[in-house]
Every structure is written in C-alpha cells, then in structure tokens.
Amino acid sequence: MPLRYQLMLLFLLFAIVPSVGMGVLVNWTVERVVERQVEGHTMQLIGKVNEALNTKMENLQNMTYLIAFNPDVNAFMDEKLIGDGGGRTESSTTEGHSESEQNRLYGMKQTLQGFTTLYPEIAGIVLVNSGGDYISNEMYPRTDQRLTREDWYQNAAAQPGIFTVLGQPQERNMTTHVRYKNDEIVSVVRSVTDETSGAVKGAVLIDLKLRSVSQAARNVTLGKSGYVMVTDANGQSVYKPEHPLIEHIPVSWFNAGESGTFTKQVDGETLLFMYQSSTFTGWRTVGVFPTKESISEVRQIQFYVVSFVFVVCLFGLSASLWFSRSIAQPIFRLMSYMRRAETGNLNAGRWSDRADEIGMLGSSFNRMLSRIRQLILLNELRERQKRDAEMRSLQEHIKPHFLYNTLDTIHWMARKEGADGVSDMVGALSRLFRIGLSKGQDYIPLHSELEHISSYLQIQQTRYRDRLRCTVDVPDDLQNLYVLKLLLQPLVENAIYHGIKGRRGPGHIVIKGNLHQGRLHLTIQDDGAGMTKERLEEMLRLLDMPMESLESSSPEWTGKSYGMLNVQARLRLSFGGDYGILLDSRPGEGTCVTIVHPLMRELPAAPLPQNETRDHQDESKKE
C-alpha cells in the first residue's frame, strides 16, 4: 500500500477509533456518575430526613426524662394499688384525697399541659403507675380495663428505662379527646424505674401527631415524581404521600445493612429504592423514584456525545486527506533524489522553503550528500597516505633485517674463531633484534618476550658484571599467553639506568608474573635508588595523561621517562583505560612497576579496539 494511503488510514484510525472509544467511555462514565450523583444526592436527603426524625424523637425522649424527674410524678409512681385490683380512673384519683394531694395532682396536669403547649405536635401524654392509675391532660381509656395490661405498657416494662418508638397504635384502649385516628399519630413510651432497686414503677406514653413526622419528608422531592416515605422495622408505613408509587414495601426487599439500594418492578414500572435506617428509632427512610427519570438525563448527554463523535470523524476524514498529501509528496521527492544518489549522482536536490521536519530532512539529505563527497575525497587521500606509509615501513624494515642478518654472520664467524664472549654478545644482540621484529606482528607469546628480555639482560650483565643480578619468576602455564611485544625491555632499562646504577653496590632486579582478578600482572621490581615523593607524584600524573596531551604539553615525554610512558600509551591504546602501569617507589628502597595486561590465550586476528576491552576482560575472567 502506498505511503499516502497508509497515512490516510492511520489518521482515520487515530481520529475515529479514539473518538468512538471516548464516546463509549464518556457514555459509560456519565451513567456511572449520574447514578452516583443521584444516589449521593438522594442519600443526603434521606439522611437529612432521618436526622430530623431523630431530633424529634430525641426531644420526646428528653421530655420523658423531665417528666420522670418531677417529684410529684415520682410520688404518683410510688403510690400503691387500692381497691380490688382494678386501676383507678382519673376522676377516682382525686376523690378521697386531701387538699394537698389534689393540688399535687393538679400540678402534674399543669406540667403535662405545659409540655403540650410548648410542643404543639404532641397529641397527648399519659402517666401510668404500676397499680394501673393514670394521669393525663388529653388522653383517657375507652374501658375500665387496667392500663398495665396494655401491649404498649408491657413493651415498656420489658425494657426498663429504655425509650421505645412504638409507631402507629393498633387496637389500643387509650384514646384522646380530639379522637385522633390511629394513622394520624405515632406513639412513644418509656418505663420509669426505681433508682435503687431498678423495678418498674410505671410508664410515660406520648402520642405525636403524624403531621410533624410527615413535615420532615413531605417537602423532599426526588426528581419529577419521586418521594420519600418512612416505614417502621416491620415494613409498615409510618408516612407516605397521598398518591404513592407503591403502597407497601415488603421487609424482605431490604438488605441486612443500615443503608442500601435496590431496584424492583412494580406494576410494570422499574422503581429505584434507596433507604437508610435509624438506629435510634428503628425506622427506615426510603427514597422511591422511577429509573427512567435518570435515564432521560443520560440519553441527553449521549446525544451530545454522538454528535461530537460524528463531527470529529468528519473533520478527521478531511484532515487526513490534506495531511497525508502534504507529508507523502515531499517524501516521494526525497525517494527520487535517493534513487538518483544510488546511481552515483551526489548532486544536491532542490527543496522548497518548508521549515517543518520534512524541510529539515531535505536540508539534512543535501548536507549528507555533501559530507559523502568530502568523505570520498578524504578516503582517497588516506589511501594514498597509507600506501606511502607502507612503502616507508617497508624501507625501514630493510635496515633491521640487514643488521640482524649481518649480526648473525658475525656471531657464527666469532664462534668459528673461538671468541666465545664476542659470539655470545653478538648472539644475544641478534636474538634481541629478531624478537623485536617478530615478523611484523604486534603480539608475541610471553615466553618470547621473556627470551627477548633475557637477551637484553645478557648484554647488560656483560657490561655491569657483578653489579647486576636478575631473577625471572614466571610460571610455565602463563608463558603461552600472548602479550603486547616490547613491554619489559623499556621498564628493565629504566630499572638499570635510574635504579641500580644510582645505588652503591650490586643491585637486583626481579621479574614476576601472576594472575590477579582475571588479568595478567607482570611486575618489575628493583632495589635501586627509588624515587622521591615529588618525582613519584609527577610520574603518576604523567601516566594518567593521554598520549596526545603528553606530546603537546609535557617536555618529560622526550626525557628519561619516555620508555615507561611509551609502554603506558601502547597498553591504553591497545586495550583501553582499564589496563596499563601501576607504579610504586620509595627513596632508597627501590621501585616496583606492575603491568596490568588482559589474558590472551590466542593470537588476535586484529588489534583489540578500545571499545572491546571490557568484553575481552570478561572473557578472560571466565577462562
């Protein structure tokens, strides 16, 4: 497929697929967000209704405490039963009593009247003692049956001192002067107990007008047709609006938790129920509303999302056509210039004044062609220089070969004439040149390097005689390793001329070889004059400097440190900065030079580049 069509397809995918994905994600997210918002808002409203109901019930609870703490009420609760076991009516409690007792009863009525006046939502209050006697300002029994046999009194007596919300009364013997219906009031009760024995002395019953309960839930609307209703623990409705969507909510629909949400089908319509239970009253405040009301809001948002996706896709199609053309056309032109360059025509191409990446690519292509032409010319120049260097190297090698052959002839002539000392000296010098040439190779076996240094020491010992002693201690298993040639001779020469020569009496040079952390260490140690601290610091500084810096800025490079610095430079150029010379010296005690060399068990096909030194080191460690 041509690049232009690939770009069009790619741009369409990047425009349409994310837009469709975003639409689906937004749709899903909006549904979740709307649900959470509706649920959260509804739960907040339900919580507010619950708080209002709890506040009203807490006021009633506090009212029962105030009534029970009244001294006259306590005295009334402590009175014994009189008569034949039946409870006394309100009128009988006033007959046969003294004037002070009548005043006390009148005071209690006035107290109850004060509560109903202060809280007009109270329909009535009745006090009943354990003997069945009662006092009330608004309530009275329908029959002469003792009030202690009533279910509400038995419920209060079963929970001493506990405030209990009874809900709407059912088949109760008590009524009021206003004759409220059972579905118009809500009853609460609390038993009064003796402080010392804990025995139940009586009970306080309060009827609350239902409109005070409905007032907290009536003004709460959920959506267009949703509402809030209140049910008791048995599922009976405490409050519901005039035209509810459901008359009765079964208890089995509610979960075990204090709050929750569930959806049910009622008369062919899906209703969403959210409820919250009150631990104080035991009632449930339930929010009821149709799910279609929240779905309509979601569909409105979905319409806008679909419209947005359509516009984005239309715009993406138009933009992809223009954008693919603007990118593909200059790329095709670049391809034609590249094909022309493949044929050998390296002339620069013509480009427009575009300042974007395509224009920069064209400018870079022209610069690349110019650089290629320069590199071709430079390569031709280097090839000519390389041929000239090879010619000069060939000419330089002619002289050592001629000298080596001449020395070999002199060696055999001296041996023939019986001049053994001259023969040995010439033989050692001949071997020195032969190993130094090494057929032009840069790496030689360690035993050849040791043979080379032995020939050199033989010549030096002929000169210095008893003043120079040398010991070579290199294990046989290391002598087949390959090393960079001419490593030891410059360092041994330094040890002789700057160490042994500068001390009194004979000197000793020790050459050792060993393996340390996967590397070959060659140590040249003498007991000569050593170095001063300043000279040692200067040498360490020179050893850390690169070769080009030494050539340009250090006059010591051509002085007496040339041999050691040359070995250091060759080691680092061949193997990298991890290898080289370690130097330690003390005045009057001698100098120790250690060569850190990689393990090379085979002759490399080419000199090791610096960037391969680490790999070679790892291989040596494995061996």
Verbal overview:
This protein is of the alpha+beta class and about 625 residues long. Among the domains are: about 350-435; about 440-620, Heat Shock Protein 90 (2-Layer Sandwich). It has helices at about 5-70, 70-80, 100-120, 150-160, 210-220, 290-340, 355-415, 420-435, 445-465, 490-500, 535-545, 545-555, 560-575, 615-620, and strands spanning about 120-130, 135, 140, 165, 175, 185-195, 200-210, 225-230, 235-240, 260-265, 270-275, 285-290, 445, 470-475, 480-485, 505-515, 520-525, 580-585, 590-600. Strands 2-1-7-6-4 form a five-stranded antiparallel β-sheet, with helices on both faces. A five-stranded antiparallel β-sheet has the order 9-8-12-11-10. A hairpin with a 2-residue loop joins strand 10 and strand 11 (about 270-275). Helix 1 (about 5-70) packs antiparallel against helix 6 (about 290-340) and helix 8 (about 420-435) runs antiparallel to helix 9 (about 445-465). The longest helix has about 70 residues, at about 5-70. The protein starts with a helix and ends with a helix. Mean pLDDT is about 75; it is low at about 80-95, about 395-400 and about 610-623.
Helices and strands in order, then pairings?
Blueprint: H1 3-69, H2 71-78, H3 99-118, E1 122-129, E2 134-136, E3 139-141, H4 151-158, E4 163-167, E5 174-176, E6 185-193, E7 200-209, H5 210-218, E8 227-231, E9 237-239, E10 259-266, E11 269-277, E12 284-290, H6 292-342, H7 357-417, H8 420-437, E13 443-445, H9 446-464, E14 468-473, E15 482-484, H10 488-500, E16 507-516, E17 519-526, H11 533-544, H12 547-553, H13 562-575, E18 580-586, E19 590-598, H14 613-622
Parallel strand pairs: 14-16
Antiparallel strand pairs: 1-2, 1-7, 3-5, 4-6, 6-7, 8-9, 8-12, 10-11, 11-12, 13-15, 16-17, 17-19, 18-19
Helix pairs in contact: 1-6, 6-7, 7-8, 8-9
GO cellular component, one term: plasma membrane
InterPro entries: Bact_2-comp_sensor_kinase, dCache_1, HAMP_dom, HATPase_C_sf, HATPase_dom, Sig_transdc_His_kin_internal
Domain HAMP: 325-377
